[in-house]
Amino acid sequence: MESDKSQNRVWDKKQITLGILGLGVVGSGTVRLLMENAAEIERKIGLPIVIKKIAVRNLDKPRDVVVDRALLTNDPCEVIDDPDIDIVCELIGGVEPARGYVLRALKNGKQIVTANKEMIAKEGQSLMEEASRRGLDLQFEGSVAGGIPIIQPMKNALAGNRIEQVMGIINGTTNYILTKMTREGADFGEVLKEAQAHGYAETDPTSDIEGFDAQYKIAILASIAFTCRVPVNEVYCEGITGIAAQDIAYADELGYVIKLLGVAKRTADENRVEVRVHPTLLPKTHPLAFANDVYNAVQVKGSAVGDVVFYGRGAGSGPTGSAVVGDIMDVCRNLRYGATGRISCTCFERRSIVPMDEVITRHYIRMVVKDQPRVMATISKIFGDYEINIASMVQKETFGTETDIIWLMHETPGKSVSGALAIIRDLPIVVEVSNWIRVVD
Ligand SMILES: NC(=O)c1ccc[n+]([C@@H]2O[C@H](COP(=O)([O-])OP(=O)(O)OC[C@H]3O[C@@H](n4cnc5c(N)ncnc54)[C@H](OP(=O)(O)O)[C@@H]3O)[C@@H](O)[C@H]2O)c1
């Protein structure tokens, strides 16, 4: 017990009362951890946490955790309007009705813990402002990278740094698919089906494979890193559906792996930042390249600390429950010492997002061309006309009338590459431009 600090205590109740919205994957993990480690959690925060009510949609559904049925309700208002409940933990997901419940709970003076990335990315500003106005906590560690602590470290331990860059593999489903494609030389569609069969991909995998899930998460991380609001709809987003087995094989030959990355980067212009999600060729020796299967990894570059890499399970009941319980305990400590609302919204600045056309990266381009004289010279000239500096070019030995060519380009703005490819695509000697992927070193 933290008895030596008890004179500072402003909390006069004997317990902290929790209400939960949602008892699915994350809700079950949260409740299980709170029950299994109740004694240790109580010793750490100095008070017991008592779960008073859990709202679900279907009262009769079998649950992954044993809870007293009397705790369950299908009326969320029994949680958000209960004057005894101190903390509301929102684990429903999606924007509505979750946002409405959270707002109403804030208006009722409740502290909030959530793992809802979509709600925080799209509606975080108004919710955070409401929490700030009322001096309440709104914590959301579980919303990004599941069990990996990343939001709290950025807001606390790394707060003294100017964050230059945050880059990460922040979607486990796509990392699982890309890892399998790499190991087995398999095609995207084949691996997706297998991932769905094993429960690593949703029945509707759109949010993961099109990059939207990563888009929400990088918008949240960028807002914290650059102390500015990053509107999620302005974040460039490209998923992994266009990645072919050949791209992975060619990347491998060139010393790279392909990962879906969320990238947030400061630019020389203080008023602009880069925030984007796209498949990326990463050198095999890059610290993020080692995150495989469903694992996530996030690299933060701070002005004083340099590079810090966070690695772990980015989703799942236990890992996300771990992040949610950590937030609940933090809120409990704040409640005990009258310090809620201590770290409110940190989006003080206004910065715009650099359009993808202007973002400068290296590039990988794969195309199929006719096997004829002067093909290379013709295409190279067009790249030259757009000031694109070729770093390497590989032509596969031809046994038919067509051949693959793989180009790696030095750093060039996106608009130069799109301009050159628009012309190259129409050349009679070009069968197709098969892929264009950005390269990060
Ligand atoms: N799954 C993960 O690994 C993971 C990782 C990080 C973050 N998250 C985030 O955590 C949140 C929860 O995800 P999840 O995977 O746990 O979802 P889930 O398994 O679908 O669980 C959602 C829960 O919310 C309940 N619910 C839905 N609508 C409701 C309503 N209108 N009123 C009351 N209860 C309602 C459901 O009730 P029934 O059970 O009765 O249907 C269910 O218990 C989401 O924001 C998600 O993005 C998830």
How would you describe this protein?
By secondary structure, the chain is α/β, with parallel strands linked by helices. It has three domains: 3-145 and 317-336, NAD(P)-binding Rossmann-like Domain (Rossmann fold), CATH 3.40.50; 151-313, 2-Layer Sandwich (Dihydrodipicolinate Reductase, domain 2), CATH 3.30.360; 356-439, ACT domain (Alpha-Beta Plaits), CATH 3.30.70.260. The protein contains 14 helices and 17 strands. The strands form two sheets. Strands 7, 8, 9, 10, 11, 12, 13, 14, 15, 16 and 17 form an eleven-stranded mixed β-sheet that branches. It has a six-stranded parallel β-sheet with strand order 3-2-1-4-5-6, with helices on both faces. A hairpin with a 3-residue loop joins strand 11 and strand 12 (306-313). The longest helix is centred in the C-terminal third of the chain and has 20 residues, at 317-336. Residues 1-7 have low confidence and may be disordered.
